[in-house]
Design goal:
Length: 205
C-alpha cells in the first residue's frame, strides 16, 4: 500500500473511533501532557484547517515558540468545535496532502499514528495499528529523531515482541512495536506495556 493510502486510511479509522467515544472519554487525559482527547483531535487537523499565512501569524503571536503556538491553537480549537466536528475534520481531510515542515509523507503518517495512539493507549482501547504502518514508521527511527521528541535511547535496545524489529544497543526494552514507536516519540506509557531493566524510564509516574 502506498503511504498516501496509509495516511488516508489512518485518518478515516481514527475519525470512526472518535465518533464512537463517550462524552467522558472526550474529556479524558492523553499521553500528550496537559491535553485531553479533544485537544489532541483538534491538533491533528490543524494542518488542514490553517493556511500557511495563518500558521505564520499564530507563530509570531506565540513569540516564535512552536510548542506554545500549537498548545494555544489546540486549546482554542477544541473549545470552539463540537466533538462531531473534530472527528469530521479528520475524515473530510483524509486525503489532504499536508506534511510537517520536515520528514515528508512519513512524518505525516507518524503524526496521525502517534497522536491516535496518544488517545487510544491513554483510554485503554485495544486498537492495533496495521502492521505495515507500524513497520514503516519504526524503520524511520533514529537516535537523532528520538532526541528531537525528547526520548533518550542511549544504552537501550528497543526490541519488538510482536514483529521482527529492533533498534539500538544496550539493555533490552521490549514491548509491542506500536508501544516502542511511542517510546521513540518521547511518550511515557502506562504501566504494564513495557518490559526490561530500564523500562521505568519510559513509564508514566
Amino acid at each position: 500500500m502506498r503511504i498516501e493510502a496509509m495516511i488516508a486510511a489512518e485518518r478515516r479509522e481514527l475519525a470512526d473511533l472518535l465518533d464512537g467515544l463517550t462524552a467522558e472519554q472526550w474529556e479524558a487525559p492523553t499521553l500528550c501532557t496537559g491535553w485531553r482527547v479533544r485537544e489532541v483531535a483538534a491538533h491533528m487537523s490543524m494542518g488542514f484547517r490553517y493556511s500557511l499565512a495563518r500558521t505564520a501569524a499564530e507563530l509570531v503571536g506565540a513569540g516564535g515558540n512552536i510548542h506554545r503556538m500549537t498548545d494555544r491553537c489546540a486549546r482554542r480549537d477544541a473549545a470552539a468545535a463540537s466533538t462531531a466536528e473534530l472527528a469530521y475534520f479528520l475524515r473530510h481531510h483524509a486525503e489532504h496532502p499536508w506534511k510537517p515542515p520536515v520528514g515528508g509523507l512519513a512524518s505525516a503518517l507518524a503524526h496521525d499514528v502517534v497522536h491516535g495512539l496518544d488517545i487510544t493507549v491513554a483510554l485503554g482501547l485495544d486498537r492495533r495499528v496495521p502492521e505495515d504502518r507500524v513497520r514503516l514508521l519504526l524503520g524511520k527511527v533514529t537516535l537523532r529523531s528520538a532526541r528531537f521528541f525528547g526520548a533518550d535511547l542511549r544504552g537501550v535496545e528497543l526490541r519488538a515482541d510482536d514483529l521482527d524489529w529492533s533498534f539500538g544497543s544496550g539493555r533490552p526494552l521490549t514491548g509491542a512495536g506500536q508501544d516502542l514507536l511511542l517510546v521513540a516519540f518521547g511518550r511515557r506509557l502506562p504501566p504494564g506495556r513495557l518490559q526490561g531493566e530500564r523500562h521505568h524510564r519510559f513509564v508514566a509516574g
